[in-house]
Amino acid sequence: MLVGIGFDIHEHSENSELYLAGLKLEGVGFKAHSDGDIILHALCDALLGSVGKKDIGYYFPSNLKTPENISSLKILEKVLSVIEYPSLKINNIDIIFISQVINVSKSRDKIIENLANLLDINSSKINIKGKTTDNLGIIGNQSASSCQVIISLTNA
Q1: What does the alpha-carbon distance between residue 56 and residue 48 come to, in Å, rounded to a whole number?
Q2: 134 CB contacts (<8 Å, ≥6 apart)?
Q3: What residues does each domain of the chain span?
């Protein structure tokens, strides 16, 4: 069995559109070199970590080597290639979305369904939980949101 953990955090930006799990949603987006999709970024790091590859920043540094505003869907596509995804089988994905600004429960079903489609797995293998920090810290003061992902895989 393979296990990977991913994490991402981004500052909110009124000037950016909100992307989560590859979906464009209503709400305040994130300041980022890419589209700022913290769910896909954390998922990509979990996938990379599960097979002992370097982190997402190695493949997509926040500089001129990576196109500005790159879609996180393109990042996921590259990561799936790097980890040789067809040779793996996802057992389950558990996501914790931490925000005082975005109520992930309003989009939970759409997020799960889109992730299932992107990864070609049954949606029952994906869980997402929304948390706050009870107004503590950078997330609590509504400056940023973060996401943690743990994934379990086996060789196909």
Answers
A1: 8
A2: 140
A3: 2-155
Fold of the domain built from segment(s) 2-155 = 60s Ribosomal Protein L30; Chain: A; (3.30.1330)
CB within 8 A of 52, min separation 6: which ones? none
Span 69-80, pLDDT tens digits: 999 999 999 999
For 84-125, what is each residue's pLDDT tens digit? 999 999 999 999 999 999 999 999 999 999 999 999 999 999
**Entry pTM:** 0.97
CA dihedral angle for residue 105, residue 150, residue 49, residue 142, rounded to 10 degrees: 40
Q: Count each helix (H run) and each strand (E run) in the chain, helices first.
A: 5, 7
CA distance 103 to 47: 25
**Six-digit token string for 60:** 């997509």
